Amino acid sequence: MELYKTRRVSDRTYNRVVKLLGEPATVELVGILGYYVMVSMTLNVFNVLPDPGRPVPFPEPAV
Amino acid sequence: MTRDWKAWTRLGVHEIMAPMAFHSRIKLDYPVSLGNYRHARDPSEPMCLHLVHVPGAPNQGHSARDQFRIGRQSLLDTTFDQFEARIRDDLDRMLGPGGFSSGRDIAAITVNRWSHGYAYAPSGLYDGDDFAPTIETARKPAGRVAIANSDAQWNAYAHAAIDEADRAVREVLASQLKSTCYADKEVIMPAKRLKPRLEAPDASLMTAEQRAMCKAIAQGPRKLVKLIGPFGVWLNAPAFGELAQRLGGHCRFRTGVPPRLSEFAIIVTARQWRAQYECRPMRRSPRKPASAPRRSRISAWGACRIRAARRTGDPHVRHGALQDETRQRPHV
Question: Which of B255, B262, B276 sits opposite A49 (nearest CB)?
Fold first, then answer.
């Protein structure tokens, strides 16, 4: 959330994550976040929704 | 406020009850010292008097509820000048024999109209059973505003105010939970259902490249036969789609990030982007991929539960840094 909010990550947060995951997995974690931003963008641009008749989790914003 | 209270000592009283007078009760201030304030000890010192007037319309055949209503109205209608005249009159007549003179001895007057403070409280003796639903309707939350205070219980006392504050806070928390954690059950349908803009091409019309991408996905860790979610879209650009799905397979199933954390990262991202599909409730875990059986066992649904568990302090969920995210309120 820090990354989403400030577009940066503080030394404190970075060091905590590296301590927890190690450097390779930290790289991958950032990759996961980025990959799923791509997935989300794809879903949102092309109106990919859950199966018809199933409830959706968020109110759909007016465009 | 009087300049002294010698008349009271001369009369040998500290309180006068007079049920039929305008002020039914007149008394010396409570002998309380607080901080730098020290209560009067000598009759020559200034003294605060308490005068109680309870407006009403007794003995005229009105119901209790109507009497309260009439009393409240008369309290609001009575001017300060009228109160002052009654105060001077009562004090002169009650304390005059002790040497009191309102013109000389009154230093100041404050009128507190507690028209709200002792509003009518329904009684099981005279009232019907309609007051519970009435008050429930009256204190219904309006959007994210919940109604606290003793009025919400129709009972003007501190314990009622405390109980109602507790209920109001719970209502606010419940409404927030509803809007932030869809997993609980409440979800909002969009006013107009959106139509997908791009779908996977029909199998019979696929190019060789598209068929190759389908095959790769079917043989990959997801074992998807039908291309759903972003894959259906990506199939329209199969060269890109093939690279994307391979990266996705690695991200989802083969990184060094613990599965709970990676699912958590996914759900936080999907939530941040309000990606309906990615956050859809998944009641069953996705099919286990042969290559990494443990990875897939936690679905997005499971990740949401991790988040919920974090809220309740589940000790199984304690992956430090990432969890700062859970404390953030989402921007809806």
Answer: B276
pLDDT along chain B (332 residues), means of 10: 96 94 94 90 95 90 86 91 96 96 96 75 75 84 87 85 90 69 44 72 86 86 77 89 90 86 84 77 42 39 46 38 39 34
pLDDT at B282: 52
Collapsing DSSP states into helix, strand and coil, what is residue B284?
A: coil
**What are the CA-CA distances from residue A7 to residues A31, B13, B272 (Å)?**
15, 75, 13
Asked whether residue A34 is assigned to any structural domain, the reply reads yes
Q: Is B278 on the interface with A (CB under 8 A)?
A: yes
pTM of this structure: 0.43
- The C-alpha of B188 sits at a distance from chain A's nearest C-alpha, in angstroms, of 6
ipTM metric: 0.87
pLDDT in tens, B291-332: 333 333 344 444 454 454 444 343 333 343 344 433 333 333
Residue B299 tokens, joined: 């679905």
Domain annotation covers residue A54: no
Would you say B248 and A39 are in contact if contact means Cβ atoms under 8 Å apart? yes
Can you say whether the dihedral through the CA atoms of B159, B161, B164, B169 is positive or negative?
Answer: negative
The neighbouring-strand residues paired with B28 are: B49
Within-domain flag for A19: yes
Specify the number of domains making up chain A.
Answer: 1
User: Which domain does A28 fall in, by range?
Assistant: 2-45
pLDDT digits 0-9 by tens, B30-57: 999 999 989 999 999 999 999 999 898 8
Contact between B88 and B82 under an 8 Å Cβ cutoff? The reply is no
**Distance, C-alpha B286 to centroid of its chain:** 38
**Helix (H/G/I), strand (E/B), else coil: B225:** coil
| Option in A16, A38, A60 nearest B194 (CB) | A60
Amino acid at B100: F
Rounded-to-integer distance, Cα B191 and Cα A59, Å: 9
Residue B89 falls in which region: left (phi positive, over 0), alpha (psi -120 to 50) or beta: alpha
Nearest to A30 by CA among B300, B265, B270: B265
Closest-CA residue to B172 (of B152, B150, B147, B135)? B147
Which of A40, A54, A60 has the CB atom closest to B269's CB atom? A40
Is residue A23 in some structural domain?
yes
Residue B28 parent element (H or E): strand B25-28
CB atoms within 10 A of CB A55: 14
